[in-house]
Write a structure and sequence with these properties.
By secondary structure, the protein is mainly alpha-helical. It has 4 helices and no strands. Helices cover 39% and strands 0% of the residues. The radius of gyration is 15 Å and the shape is globular.
Amino acid sequence: MAWLDAALYPDVEPPEELSALADQIDFIARLCSAWDFGLLPEWETVVEVRRPAWRAAVDTCRLLTSHSYHLLRRWHGLPPLPYLGSVPAYIREDPNLEFV
């Protein structure tokens, strides 16, 4: 898997394969988090995660605070989900939020 960036796994050894849905979801979360932080993926990685085989992992991941995650959803033709952005969900509907 030449497309897999080992830097996304600073806490564990990079996996040999990502055949299980849970492993793919973990990869999507790591990829999107790094991407949102400004660490751009290699082109080969982008090509890989755009393949139809990743659609279920992208849909299940639900990293709603990530710009990159919402881009992956769009690439896979998945319905849009609410972007939670940098506002924590538990105060999103607080009427006093506009005064903060």
